[in-house]
Design brief:
- It is a single chain.
- Helix 2 packs antiparallel against helix 3 (65-75).
- The longest helix is centred in the middle third of the chain and has 29 residues, at 15-43.
- The chain has a domain at 48-86.
- The protein is rod-shaped.
- The chain is mainly alpha-helical and 86 residues long.
- The protein has helices at 15-43, 50-60, 65-75.
- The N and C termini lie far apart (95 Å).
């Protein structure tokens, strides 16, 4: 009995090409998905806190120590004059 025609079954003729194409698609999609995940995580920008912005500005010389101290008191919830705001 010859169930599969030439003896190779579905692997005969174009079956091998279909299997190769399927594996190429699976591997390609896997690589794309992994790179998409890694790029997405790196592209997420984390917002700086007000304290970090203030520290960066002092370090870069945009503001002096007096302005830093005054802004830090405001950020920490104190008034610029030194009394705590309520």
């Amino acid at each position: 009995m010859d169930w599969y025609g030439n003896g190779y079954g579905w692997m005969g003729g174009g079956g091998i090409l279909w299997m190769a194409l399927t594996w190429i698609i699976i591997i390609g999609l896997s690589i794309w998905f992994v790179t998409w995940l890694t790029r997405r995580d790196k592209s997420v920008e984390r917002a700086e806190t007000p304290r970090q912005i203030l520290d960066r500005r002092l370090a870069s010389g945009e503001i002096d120590a007096t302005a830093y101290a005054q802004a830090r008191r405001l950020i920490d919830g104190h008034s610029a004059g030194g009394a705590e705001s309520k």
